[in-house]
Amino acid sequence: PRGSLSYLSSGINAEYGGNNVTMYSRNFNITDCDAFTRNYLTKTGAKVPDPQSMEPEDPYFVHRKKEASTMQPHRPYEKCDTLKQFLENDRNVLRFYCVWDNSGEMFGDVRELVLHYFLADDTIEIREVIRANSGRDAAPKFLHRSKVPKDVGALHKPGEITQRTVLNVFGPMGHGGRYILDSLKTGAVQKEFYTDADLTIGAKVNVWGREVTICDMDDFTAHHYVTRYGREKSTPIHYKQTEAAKAEREIPPYNGWGSEEDSRANCLKLIAQAPKRDFIKFMKKDRQGLDSHVLRYFARLDTNRPIDMDRCFIISAFLSDDTISVFEPEKRNSGIVHGKFIERSKIAKEGGGYYSAEDLYVGAVVSFRSHKFVITDADEYAKTYAEKHKNE
Q1: Where do runs of H (alpha helix) occur along 150-229?
Q2: Pairing with 389, which of 67, 173, 223, 347 sits 20 to 30 Å away (CA)?
């Protein structure tokens, strides 16, 4: 309402231009209108003034801002906003395959490394590729995740490198002193660190005095450099060492101590283990009541020496583990000590392999440890067993 009348759009536009509009005893200053209202009033032939400032300036707040700009706080902190970089690049990690050639030093060699560059905070982590049986301790990290300076130089004292430089204006050191921020950063140590722009195939990175050469990168890293820097992936450098041809293991000849299988087990592993036995065969062919599963043969030496031509031997073949023993029975006034001639064990053939029950029969010539025997006869159990199992 406007007195006894009411406001119309033309009346409000007439007031537009700095005059106040009184509505219910409250004064309003119209400064602007929206695009539709401006278009409508223009079509009706009304002249619409230009927009004015939205709100008047308060002299008090203007004075406070001016005073605040001339003041410096006692404990100033520089604003270093890294949240944006973290939110945009979190979990984005560049991976490079590198080598560290330390062969120039005593006992040094070429070591393969994997360099991880974290885009979230520009830090670098290096892990070493440790092959199986390389003789090196499996350390979790070659370099802990941190920023790597380009120029190592001498080590600085604690507190020498800080993010801000603070000056003691007056007062004692510690409690009671007055400090201000040195905007000129007098005496600040400037350190330049590696960034993703410095890392490329063929580049050499100084990792605390160790020269690491970048040889290759993964697909995500190559895509990052194409999209951000417009650099295509270079030709990778061959860095993987070729495995040397494995030399065949030479087994020393049997020296006669213990069984040959046991001696061979000492050469196959660092910690010797007893040779494995065929347990199923042992259970089937072990002694079962009157069935001994031991075949006995009579034999003589195949020799022309008169003193050895009359010697007799009993060859026992144990079917449970394919072992053989040779026993010489007593012969009075022969001048030869009777007893165990060859202890029970597996006996190797001259052409390879071991003797078994299939190699023993009447008329066979066998060589047991440089002694040739001719089998002349067999006991009744051996003959009966051979007839029952002639197809085996």
Answers
A1: 219-228
A2: 347
> What does the alpha-carbon distance between residue 119 and residue 202 come to, in Å, rounded to a whole number?
21
Tell me the pLDDT tens digit for each residue of 118-135: 999 999 999 999 888 788
Tokens encoding 14: 């007439």
Q: What stretches of 54-139 show up as alpha helix (H) in DSSP?
A: 59-69, 83-89
Q: How far is it, in rounded angstroms, from Cα 134 to Cα 335?
A: 61
Element holding 261 (H helix, E strand): helix 260-268
Going by C-alpha positions, the residue among 267, 270, 268 that lies closest to residue 255 is: 267
CA distance 30 to 36: 16
Q: Quick one: tokens of 97?
A: 């395959």
Task: Write out the two tokens for 275.
Answer: 């040779």
Answer whether 0.90 is exceeded by the pTM: no
What pLDDT score was predicted for residue 5? 58
What is the tens place of the pLDDT at every residue in 324-345? 999 999 988 888 888 999 988 8
Q: Which two tokens stand for residue 103?
A: 């062969």
Q: Which residue has the tokens 């005893």?
A: 25
Of 373, 186, 342, 191, the closest CA to residue 260 belongs to: 342
Distances (CA, A) of 36 to 19, 39, 41: 22, 5, 9
Burial (Cβ within 10 Å: 0-12, 13-18, ≥19) of residue 313:
buried
Tokens of 369: 């440890």
Kindly state the greatest CA–CA separation across the chain. 162
Report phi then psi at 302, rounded to 5.
-90, 85
Structure letter (DSSP) for residue 54: S
Phi-psi region of 37 (alpha: psi -120 to 50; beta: other; left: phi over 0): alpha
**In angstroms, rounded to a whole number, what is the distance separating the alpha carbons of residues 321 and 275?**
12
The residue count of the chain comes to: 392
The label of the residue with tokens 């400064």 reads 31
Q: Which of 163, 182, 178, 176 has the alpha carbon at shortest distance from 74?
A: 178
Task: Give the number of other Cβ atoms within 10 Å of residue 72's Cβ.
Answer: 8
